[in-house]
Here is the input.
Amino acid sequence: MALLADLRSDTVTRPSPAMMQAMSTAEVADDVLEGDPTTRRLEEAVARLLGKEAAMFVPSGTMANQIAVRLHCGRDEAFICESTCHIYVYEQAGYAQLSGAAAHPLTGDRGVLSVEQVTAAIQPDDAHFPRTAMLALENTANKVGGVVQPQDVVQSLCDAAHQRGLTTHLDGARLFNAAVATGLEPSRLVEPFDSVSVCFSKGLGAPVGSALCGSADFIRRAGRVRKLLGGGMRQSGFLAAAGLYALENNVERLNLDHQRAGQLAAAVGSSSKLELLAEPQSNIVIFRVDDSLGTAEQFVGQLESRGVLALAIGPTTVRLVTHLDVSAEQITHACIAIVDASR
Ligand SMILES: *Cc1c(COP(=O)(O)O)cnc(C)c1O
Here is the structure.
């Protein structure tokens, strides 16, 4: 069966010819030696868009988050996060390996923490405990299905954290999905946070790259940590040009990805043997597979034999992600494959 749709992740996109054109014609210089002009342009554009003083281009979202953790938390400190978040689950416990920090994960309601929960988890100043130094949130929350954090909750959580002397970091790998889903400006979504990471290589369709944003002093210190981690890049403008192109051309269209996730969810919902975890709020659809259809892995195999790639993310759960390299026609095929494979 020919490949009809790759819905495993929004990271599978390839640069479009126009993005490649922007990359190949970028003005560049050695960013470690003298500064790369296109990278500077991207950093200024991101800082402006997010309403922060400064931004720094880094190779990956993981690096952006790990730099932030290192600047916010030390060896006798801990950060509070939601137990399904990327920093806690998918970054090799880098907070411990690279910063000597402890994680204090709390389980929220589909990825959303409450003020009571967070306030109760902040450790008193007592030598028995690591000092709670930071609150880290994620928007959209990936593992629970692209959940958009309610902004009033985000504001209260960050206010509570700041009042108690904590700093706040947002993993905004899919921040622009949250912006499009809520209709709120990205700068409004990140206003309560001291630092923010965003990815160009998810829904925005760039091949590489993330940015870390915050105060000018924070980003100056972040530059030292990036170099330490081996993230100092030379002619990074070729990559930054893809990020600039993505910000200009690929943000508004995320609406389409969200609509298409809704179409996939409707196909899933039409089968009595598949159970949607919840209605998708952005570009991620997660569902459970009934025993009678086998394991999640086996169901993914059934979809693959119909030309549709999905990801088994648990023994009985499957994830589909929409992105700019799937067309309306491919979504129609995927819906047919889902219905057919779950008969
Ligand atoms: C993808 C992702 C990241 C960063 O991933 P990289 O592959 O290191 O760029 C961080 N947080 C979330 C929520 C993600 O989905």
